[in-house]
Amino acid sequence: MPIRLKEETEKYLLGSIKRFFSEEFEQDIGDLKAMLVLDFFVREMGPSVYNQAIADAQAFIGEKVSDMGDARYEIEFAFWNKR
Fold this sequence. Notes:
- The mean pLDDT is 92.
- The longest helix has 22 residues, at 46-67.
- The protein is rod-shaped.
- It is mainly α.
- The protein is built from three helices and no strands.
- Helix 1 (7-25) packs across helix 2.
- The chain has one domain.
């Protein structure tokens, strides 16, 4: 499944890439180069970051589900035992 960024996210990232090149390398780049850099990183690194995020979420949810067994619960059919 290809990673698709929201339009406003992509716009922000393009500006961020252009600023990074300007401040770190003292090189101004245009929209086309910024888009090529963004596309490269999304396609090359995006799946690894996405897969790690899914693995982290699965571990977190699995941990929370396993904690449900330790949750306090009410004893069933206890009405007559109280008398």
